[in-house]
Amino acid sequence: MRLLVIEDEHSMRIALTDVLQAQGWRVRTAQDGSAGLALAMEEAPDLIVLDVMLPGIDGFSLCRELRARGRLMPVLMLTARGHVNDRVTGLDAGADDYLAKPFASAELLARIRALLRRAGGASSAPDQITIGDVLVDFRQAKAHRQGELVPLTARELRMLQLLAEEAGRPVSRERFLDVVWEFNAMPTTRTVDNHILSLRAKLEPDPREPRYIKTVHRLGYRLELAWDGRGKRMEADE
Ligand code: CA
């Protein structure tokens, strides 16, 4: 992921860059609105963290200009504490979310992940997968075994979708919590394990010997032998 941080305040810019780089994201920065707009147009980052109060072009105008030029990447706007109207103005200007300063880095990261997910998550998952004799249709949010409905909860479906998106790569318990439970819930990694047990009970021929939803020691889970709806094998990447 490539992120652009547009923030004139030196210490804030450094802190943001550190936090985002620690996630493995590549970060470019700009110190004022015009430089930020130029970088956003040239580099088409996956997401922009945009301060409202900037010298030159302010954050609202910058965001409006981006949208007017057809750039639709997610924009997280940073507003000053107590400026309630900033939120409305920001969303009107085309921002996708906003965060009031000061904020905790955990909340910043959770909001960025949510935006990235909304922007690109859906497209990377297949519409359908087959797990043994169960056909899971993510578009219709339903699963069937030989014509009979297999009742899956919304969380279970989302967990399967995340496993399918990763196409055989392991998904950590923390990632499940992050994606499926969002940051305001307070589940534990044990919650993830319990939901996996439930999924296996519904989908696996023998839940005690899982063939499809595999445990990855000390890490999480991965989907074995997932096929998409057109019969094409999704290659496991190991
Ligand atoms: Ca500022």
Please name the defining characteristics of this protein.
elongated, 238 residues, Rossmann fold, five-stranded parallel beta sheet, alpha/beta, binds calcium ion, 21% strand, Arc Repressor Mutant, subunit A
Describe the structure.
The strands form three sheets. The chain has a five-stranded parallel beta sheet with strand order 2-1-3-4-5, sandwiched between helices. It has a five-stranded antiparallel beta sheet with strand order 9-8-7-6-13, with no helix packed on it. Residues 226-238 have low confidence and may be disordered. The longest helix is centred in the middle third of the chain and has 20 residues, at 105-124. The protein is of the alpha/beta class. It has two domains: 2-120, Response regulator (Rossmann fold, 3-Layer(aba) Sandwich); 128-236, Orthogonal Bundle (Arc Repressor Mutant, subunit A). It is built from eight helices and 13 strands. The protein is 41% helix and 21% strand. The two termini are 21 Å apart. The chain is elongated, with a radius of gyration of 21 Å. The structure holds calcium ion. Calcium ion is lined by residues 8-9, 51, 53-54.
Assembly state (oligomeric): single chain
What is the average of the pLDDT values?
Answer: 84
Secondary structure tally, helices: 8
Compute the gyration radius: what is it? 21 Å
| Poorly predicted residue ranges | 226-238
CATH superfamily of the largest domain: Response regulator
Please give the alpha-carbon distance between the first and last residues: 21 Å
Can you summarize the main beta sheet?
A: 5 strands, parallel
Structural class: alpha/beta
Strand order of the largest sheet: 2-1-3-4-5
Q: What is the total tally of β strands?
A: 13
Q: Percent helix among the residues?
A: 40-55%
Give the number of domains: 2
